Structures are given as C-alpha cells and as structure tokens.
Amino acid sequence: MLIQVKATPVDFPRLITELIAGGFSFSSMAACTGIPKSTIESWRDGTEPSHSRGARFICLWAAVHLKQPSDAPTIKTPRKRPTYRASKSIQLSLFQDN
Fold first, then answer.
1. The pTM is what?
2. How far apart are CA 98 and CA 47, in angstroms?
3. How far from the centroid of its chain's Cα atoms is residue 14's Cα?
4. Residues 71 and 30: beta-carbon distance below 8 Å
C-alpha cells in the first residue's frame, strides 16, 4: 500500500488579519489562547507556529468565524522562506506476507 503525505500550510498571517478585522487585538488573542502576544505577533511576520499552539490558534479562528478548523485558509503560493512539509511517498506494509 502506498500512502502519500502532503501537508498544506495554514496561512497564519491571514488568520491574524481576519481576527483583527473582527475586533480582536493581539492581547485578546493571547488571552483567549494562552499563547504569548509576542509569539502571535511573530506569526504575523511569517514565523511558523509549533503544532500545539498553531492548533489552538486555528480553533480560535474557527470559533469566531463559525467554521471548522479544516476550513482555515492555506498558503497557495510559496513564501520567500521555505516551509517544511512531508512530500515524499512512504511505503508501508500493513500486513505481513506469510
């Protein structure tokens, strides 16, 4: 069985812009998520979040916009800085041949 894993990076600067347009400040985003304000500000400038913090932030965005986390906007064109994602095919043997 061949399984291909390819992640589509979430556009965190856009999430932040949309939350600001909805009346959130960096301080209120930090208060709602428990993520430091300076960390969220660095995401606006292109720093990639850790998985757990990024997931919490996506949940805030989804709750505010009454959407599912999977509806978060993604990056369509590559950024100047490389993003890291799995793009190689991996062969997995789910059953042993006897």
1. 0.68
2. 49
3. 11
4. no
Q: Which residues of the chain form beta strands (DSSP E)? A: 2-4, 89-91
DSSP H helices, 1-98, are: 12-21, 26-33, 37-44, 51-65
Domain assignment of residue 58, given as a range:
22-76
Between the alpha carbon of residue 84 and those of residues 26, 38, 60, 78, the distances in Å are 26, 23, 24, 11
The answer to whether 27 and 37 have CB atoms below 8 angstroms apart is yes
**pLDDT recorded at residue 61:** 94
Give me 42's structure tokens: 């660095």
Q: What is the pLDDT of residues 19-60, one digit of tens each?
A: 999 999 999 999 999 999 999 999 999 898 988 999 999 999
3 belongs to a structural domain: no
Query: d(Cα 27, Cα 11) in Å, to the nearest integer?
Result: 20
Residue 68 lies in a domain: yes
Note whether residue 85 is domain-resident: no
Per the document, the length of the chain is 98
- The number of distinct structural domains making up the chain is 1
